[in-house]
Amino acid sequence: MIARSIAIAAFAVNLVALPVHAGDASGLDPAAIGQCLASDEGGDCADAGMQACREYAETKYTGDEPDFVEKNCLDASHQAWEAKLTETYQALLDAEAGAGIEPQEILRQTEHAWIGFRDSLCEYRAEAATAREANGELARLECQRDEAARHWALLNARLEEIRE
Predict the structure, then answer these.
(1) Which domain holds residue 131?
(2) The whole model's pTM is what?
(3) Which InterPro entries does this entry report, sorted A to Z (predicted)?
């Protein structure tokens, strides 16, 4: 885990210039998620921005770790979804404030339970992938990203319901 963080940090520090589409040093533009969600296609936007990130990262990364580009982009995508999730969670907490303390407290408890569920699920997926001789770290990162996107959709639907 530490080695991955150091590698990602080194990758980010060694970048000289970011392309117009890059939202950060990874090459993933978080705006791609918003554009996907706003489009008529909507649907599953968990993968939004990943192809551009891969293409960008492949031009910048010169190391010999075969999965670095995918790990880099999955991690950046996960972080972008976590930021959206945090923003929506806070908005939902604020919206529930008018209903009193009970809904807010239940929402907090639900979020803590969801985090435990997500961590367990993603650990399972990593272990299952490793047992099948696949890359467990890629499976974990993809799971974390996908679960953050799914949970954002649930919280956002609730927030829209309250605002109606």
Answers:
(1) 2-163
(2) 0.80
(3) LprI-like_N
